[in-house]
Amino acid sequence: MTKISPSILSADFSALDREFARMEDAGADWAHLDIMDGAFVRNITFGAPVIRSIRKCTDLFFDAHLMIRDPVRYVDDFADAGCDMITVHCETENPWEAIDRAKERGIKTGISLNPGTPSSMVEEFVPRVDLVLVMTVNPGFGGQSFIGECVPKISEIRKFASGCNAGLEISVDGGINSVTGKICTDAGATVLVAGSSLFGSDMKKLIGEWKRFGPTL
Question: Can 25 be counted among the known catalytic residues?
């Protein structure tokens, strides 16, 4: 069954306790935490102190997507704040160091790639991470349109994993809705990340629908 991970960037930050209660009631599996530093991407969001506070509101699995230039410097902070997984970008400085440090801390690891980055750039990571995050918008701001040219990467990454990490989660983030989500799961995605499309509508209904999506490979 497809996992659904609402991106809290689209939540009401003045009422995060109620937003997490809403996510849990709707059947969300994970919470996607977009961490931006204003350097790797042209936006700044929130850091470990906010995560430490919201960790008290929910038992949902926290996937921290670190869109920051030097992620290894912050792994311990996010682990201490209660993150269950740390996902870093292959385009950043020293992604392996960040992944190795997260493993030392006993949390799950992910590697992400931007729309302009070929899938071959994450092939070496596939045997040793728990998740690959395929960005289907350029990272930095929510509400962008889905870039369909990224979909073949999902199938390519699934092929990479077939012989070395069959349980790899493939997550997709950017422009996900009922149409694009089905396209991605048909290509081999197992986790759908969405912000505005979930928080701006009947979340429970959509999550129930999306969970029934599945790969047809």
Answer: no
